């Protein structure tokens, strides 16, 4: 007989909004309205990837850095999205964090242990699980406080500026980052753009904004009861369903696959280890595409399984498995391939995300887009056609493998990028262009 371990769902109920000790902010001169017109490095995006890069550069002695972010708050958009979903724990374990490798620094597990008295018994058990080498999950509250700790100890906040980047333009001697308010000329630029929501197919309603009663997962969900339709098979959909059930709604869940996929991590854990990345390195472009398609598929944390199964058994959740959406119309009406039409008070689309690879900021010929991915030098994660610009985050997927989109993938990418930039700045050189041919 084979037994299956299903983690208990109370891990999903970690408190949010606790007060955490904060390091005193160092005295600083009056802040200017915009950064200096020139910098050694400009980081575009202040999410976990941007925070990791800024922290790593600080350890390398690179301090002339400007971070440009649409919110102006390190990890602001990241936590805004999490809180909109009501998410209380991260899927990533304690060993996945935006801290710095190879330097004396406080890691996420150490930070949590330092604040042991603020943790619930369930959260403390997760720490013990992590110390024993078993799967663990991290409370959003702990991760939020840890990111604030990194911001303070690596002086990232004082280097972060709010602006929307319009263009990244390579010029002789510099790469200029242009925003709606200011421009900064940098010796090197790192794009930490994250991922954007995947839009619905144009055939569903003709493109543009969704019809009335239909919204995307990262938009506010109106309060109230009634029936809610959720389209999508991933962790975001699970959070939307949990919120709707808690609000007393009847939920209809549309899944294109034959059934739900429950797994611990968002990608196979082998790709977080050096041997997993080496497996990815050894194959050509076609096999990499296949692996990315296989291991970047939507899945849900095991902790949701008891709640979803109970709701379905009680009739509060109706799951439409193996159903393809053909059209979405006003009034929250979702048309399925078999001819059935689901009607509700609200339809929310959780169709996943797509990596932002620099298209729209850099000239297309420099991005070198191929099958949705940029052409990168795999040693430095710089663009092959513009080595003064690098990427960290999901856009490095075809260089690092499926784990590139995960927080631990950000740390691995950061180690390469920060070391390459620091060496370039020390020696006053730019890494030579190298075109990698793949079959």
TrEMBL record:
<feature type="compositionally biased region" description="Basic and acidic residues">
    <location>
        <begin position="10"/>
        <end position="21"/>
    </location>
</feature>
<protein>
    <submittedName>
        <fullName>Pyridine nucleotide-disulphide oxidoreductase</fullName>
    </submittedName>
</protein>
<feature type="region of interest" description="Disordered">
    <location>
        <begin position="1"/>
        <end position="36"/>
    </location>
</feature>
<dbReference type="Pfam" id="PF13450">
    <property type="entry name" value="NAD_binding_8"/>
</dbReference>
<dbReference type="InterPro" id="IPR036188">
    <property type="entry name" value="FAD/NAD-bd_sf"/>
</dbReference>
């Amino acid at each position: 007989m084979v037994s299956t371990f299903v983690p208990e769902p109370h891990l999903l109920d970690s408190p949010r909004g606790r007060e955490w000790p904060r390091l005193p902010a160092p005295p600083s001169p009056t802040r200017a309205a915009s950064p200096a017109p020139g910098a050694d490095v400009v980081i575009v995006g202040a999410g976990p990837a941007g925070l990791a890069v800024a922290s790593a550069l600080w350890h390398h002695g690179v301090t002339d850095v400007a971070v440009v972010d649409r919110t102006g708050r390190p990890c602001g958009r990241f936590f805004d999205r999490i809180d909109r979903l009501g998410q209380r724990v991260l899927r990533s374990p304690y060993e996945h964090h935006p801290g710095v490798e190879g330097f004396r620094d406080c890691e996420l597990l150490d930070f949590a242990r330092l604040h042991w008295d603020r943790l619930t018994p369930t959260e403390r058990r997760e720490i013990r699980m992590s110390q024993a080498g078993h799967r663990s999950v991290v409370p959003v509250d702990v991760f939020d406080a840890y990111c604030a700790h990194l911001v303070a100890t690596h002086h990232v906040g004082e280097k972060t500026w709010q602006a929307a980047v319009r263009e990244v333009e390579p010029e002789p001697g510099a790469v200029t980052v242009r925003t709606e308010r200011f421009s900064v000329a940098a010796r090197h630029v790192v794009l930490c753009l994250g991922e954007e929501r995947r839009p619905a197919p144009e055939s569903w309603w003709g493109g543009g904004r969704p019809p009335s009663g239909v919204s995307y997962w990262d938009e506010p969900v109106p309060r109230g009861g009634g029936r809610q339709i959720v389209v999508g098979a991933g962790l975001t959909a699970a959070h939307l369903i949990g919120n709707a059930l808690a609000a007393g709604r009847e939920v209809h869940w549309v899944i294109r696959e034959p059934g739900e996929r429950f797994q611990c991590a968002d990608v196979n854990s082998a790709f977080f280890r050096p041997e997993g990345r080496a497996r990815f390195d050894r194959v050509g472009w076609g096999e990499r595409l296949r692996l990315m398609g296989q291991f970047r598929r939507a899945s849900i944390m095991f902790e949701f399984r008891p709640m979803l199964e109970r709701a379905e058994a009680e009739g509060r959740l109706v799951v439409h498995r193996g159903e393809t959406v053909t059209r979405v119309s006003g009034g929250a009406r979702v048309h399925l391939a078999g001819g059935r039409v689901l009607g509700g008070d609200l339809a929310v689309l959780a169709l996943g995300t797509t990596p932002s690879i620099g298209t729209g900021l850099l000239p297309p010929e420099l991005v070198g887009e191929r099958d949705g991915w940029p052409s990168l030098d795999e040693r430095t994660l710089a663009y092959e056609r513009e080595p003064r610009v690098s990427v960290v985050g999901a856009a490095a997927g075809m260089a690092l493998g499926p784990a590139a989109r995960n927080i631990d993938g950000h740390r691995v990418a950061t180690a390469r990028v920060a070391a390459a930039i620091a060496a370039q700045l020390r020696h006053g050189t730019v890494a030579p262009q190298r075109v990698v041919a793949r079959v």
